[in-house]
Specification:
Blueprint (H helix, E strand, L loop, with lengths): L1 H29 L4 E9 L6 E7 L18 H6 L9 H15 L3 E4 L9 H11 L6 E3 L19 H4 L8 E5 L4 E5 L8 H13 L5 E4 L10 H11 L14 H10 L6 E6 L6 E4 L5 E4 L7 E8 L2
Parallel strand pairs: 1-11, 2-3, 3-4, 6-7, 7-8, 8-10
Antiparallel strand pairs: 2-11, 5-6, 9-10
Helix pairs in contact: 6-8
Bound molecules: fe (ii) ion.
Length: 308
């Protein structure tokens, strides 16, 4: 009898292993150029069930329309620089992320900025067309590269880039759920935008206790996250982070940071990018900040939110 039970367990174990291996191979075959390289868990007391968000940042995609990218050099060389280890350029990776998000039915796709390597109509339209395939909401945070034109062209007000932002508003976008919100603000200029501060103030006045996950392109700096400053300087020669003690800070940036990282803040987590490396540290005793490594390398982050 004991012998038969052991065989049954062995058989069940083998079936489970085979299923796991087949699932892995099927996914790898379907999405050969992308992978989830981080799973980040956020606990928010009172949240019912579990939420999953796909976070992408710094994809730096480009659709070639001209040979000469001005200060960015030759288009072929530049585009090839934003490839995954297999050599697949970022514009070809994006459709796989869209299909992956639709297949996994994540609750939303969150983007941390620099989805485009530079602004061109072709780049913005391509990104918008891909986003339109999603079967769930998304939040598009503006990065410094998204607005940068190598040919010094102004981004027209009717650009597809602004259509990616909720309500065409780059300063403050929000996804609301029953027990928390996700908010994207504009700090692509390496300062917090005045409009972001104004709307954030309004929001927090009306919803002082609603837990918030904050998205921004450029990471924030407080003395508590000194290691991030050191790493940023080591990689870039200067701190690519925002806050007093890191770089010049405007009164608006200072006020914004005092508000959202203050003792009364409902912010529970901050997700950023821009630095092209991974770093997790605490901005305050209760607010962790993630700096996520770039998606052009084929990487994406799954953010799981649940109650305790
Ligand atoms: Fe970037």
């Amino acid at each position: 009898m004991k012998h038969r039970n052991r065989n049954r367990w062995l058989h069940a174990g083998l079936v489970l292993c085979a299923t796991l291996v087949l699932t892995f191979l099927a996914k790898h075959y379907e999405f050969p150029d992308i992978q989830i390289n981080h799973v980040e868990e956020i606990t928010i007391p009172g949240v019912e069930g579990e939420y999953e968000f796909l976070f992408l940042t710094d994809l730096h995609l480009a659709v070639k329309t001209k040979e000469d990218l001005g200060p960015l050099g030759n288009a072929d060389v530049r585009i090839a620089g934003f490839s995954n280890p297999q050599g697949t350029v970022s514009a070809k990776q994006l459709p796989q992320w869209i299909s992956y998000a639709n297949q996994e039915q994540v609750d939303a796709v969150l983007m941390g900025g620099d989805m485009l390597d530079y602004y061109s109509d072709a780049n913005a339209v391509y990104l918008k067309e891909q986003m339109d395939r999603l079967t769930m909401p998304y939040l598009f945070t503006l990065g410094n590269h998204d607005l940068f034109s190598p040919w010094e062209e102004a981004v027209p007000a009717e650009s597809a880039l602004y259509e990616l932002c909720k309500g065409g508003n780059t300063a403050f976008q929000i996804l609301e759920y029953e027990d928390f919100v996700i908010c994207a603000i504009d700090n692509e200029s390496y300062q917090v935008n005045e409009a972001s501060l104004a709307v954030m103030k309004e929001w927090l006045n009306e919803h002082p206790d609603k837990p918030m996950i904050l998205l921004a392109h450029v990471p924030f700096y407080t003395e508590q996250i000194e290691g991030l400053k050191e790493t940023s300087i080591r990689v870039w020669g200067q701190p690519i982070i925002i806050g007093e003690g890191a770089r010049d800070t405007t009164a608006v940036t200072r006020e914004f940071m005092e508000l959202v990282f203050g003792a009364e803040s409902p912010v529970v987590a901050v997700f950023t990018g821009d630095n092209h490396f991974y770093y997790k540290g605490n901005l305050t005793d209760s607010i962790p900040q993630w700096v996520i490594d770039p998606s052009f390398a084929g990487n994406g982050t799954m953010i799981r939110v649940r109650g305790n």
